[in-house]
Specification:
31% helix; 7 strands; alpha/beta
Length: 191
């Protein structure tokens, strides 16, 4: 069996909700802590929904020891992209990968007047999407699937999960990705 995978969910020191949306002006340090903590818990819950247990993947709010992957949530901007992973690890062989979430891209949500919970969902959805690249999933064309690249902003405000979805046509013209089956195979093969 494979060793436990560790993922550090790292909010950069400059992460500031009020820079993303004026709605968050006046948020205290304590409010920001709870926002970050709730996003962290949403990410964990989504992977539990995939069927990943804490004996297979563990998420950390503080930097762990040993080999681990990192999701950096920053205030950077990347011409509208919400996030990027350093690569899609199709066989999940590398346990020291990284991905980045571009916080300033979330300013696009301001025109939808999201609630705090919806913004937490948006960050958790994009974070789950990028971490899923790190452990082997690719893009699909189904707005209900967390790996979708075809939906609109409002689809990111609601909780999304993995599923069986058609592959995005830029990945492969025909075919489907069954996230749960892929995770099952990756969990049971030897590293």
């Amino acid at each position: 069996t494979r060793p436990k995978q560790k993922v550090w969910i790292h909010f950069s020191n400059d992460f500031a909700l009020e820079d993303i949306d004026g709605f968050f002006n006046g948020y205290s340090f304590n409010d920001l802590y709870w926002f970050e903590h709730n996003v962290f818990n949403e990410i964990k819950e989504r992977f539990e929904d995939y069927g990943y247990g804490s004996d297979e993947i563990e998420f950390f709010e503080e930097q762990p020891t040993g080999t681990y992957s990192t999701l950096n949530i920053t205030m950077n901007d990347n011409d509208g992209a919400f996030g990027t992973a350093n690569h899609t690890d199709k066989w999940n062989d590398d346990y020291a990968k990284s991905a980045e979430i571009f916080g300033m891209a979330f300013a696009d949500f301001a025109r939808l007047s999201p609630t705090v919970e919806q913004m937490q969902n948006a960050f958790a959805n994009v974070s789950t999407h990028e971490i899923s690249h790190l452990i082997g999933l690719t893009h699909v064309a189904n707005p209900a699937d967390v790996m979708d690249v075809t939906g609109s902003l409002d689809t990111l405000l609601e909780q999304r999960g993995p599923g069986t979805s058609p592959l995005d046509s830029l990945i492969f013209r025909n075919g489907r990705q069954n996230a749960n089956d892929i995770y099952q195979v990756l969990r049971t093969q030897d590293k």
